[in-house]
Amino acid sequence: MAYKEIFGFEEERKPIKEFWKPKNVGDSFEGILRKVIPNRGKYRNRNMYLFENENGEIIGIMGNTVLDKIFNKNLSICLDKKVRIEYHGIGLNKNNVKYHLFRVFVEE
C-alpha cells in the first residue's frame, strides 16, 4: 500500500506565529490551509485551523459554529489550497443567540 505524507515533521516544528482574530466587518485573511486540529477550545468542541501565510509563517484560526460547518463540509477541497476568509459581523439565530458570520473562498 502506498502512502502520501500530508503534514510532515518540518511543518509540525514550525511554531504558531499568531492567531487571526477579526474585529471589524470586512477583515479578511488569506493563506494555505495546512492542518486541522480537532477537539480544541474551552469545551474541546472546536477545530483549530493552521494556515501558512505568504512568509511561510503558521497562523492559527480557532473554529466556531460557522467556520467548522463550512470546513467540515469542504475540507477535501480546501486542504493544501489557498483560502480566503472574510468576516461579516454578528448575526442572530432563530433563538436570538449571536454568532460570528464568515464567508470562505478557495482558490481554484
Could you characterize the architecture of this molecule?
This protein has a 6-stranded mixed β-sheet. 18% of the residues lie in helices and 45% in strands. It contains 2 helices and 6 strands; from the N terminus they run H-E-E-E-E-H-E-E. It has helices at 9-13, 65-78; strands at residues 16-19, 28-40, 46-52, 58-62, 82-92, 98-106. The chain is globular. The protein has 108 residues and is α+β, with helices and mostly antiparallel strands. 10% of the residues are buried. The longest helix is centred in the middle third of the chain and has 14 residues, at 65-78.
Label this structure with key terms.
single chain, 108 residues, alpha+beta, six-stranded mixed β-sheet, 18% helix
Oligomer: single chain
Overall morphology? globular
H/E order of the elements? HEEEEHEE
> How widely separated are the two ends?
30 Å
Write the layout of secondary structure elements.
Elements: H1 9-13, E1 16-19, E2 28-40, E3 46-52, E4 58-62, H2 65-78, E5 82-92, E6 98-106
Parallel strand pairs: 1-4
Antiparallel strand pairs: 2-3, 2-5, 3-4, 5-6
Précis, in short:
The chain is α+β, with helices and mostly antiparallel strands.
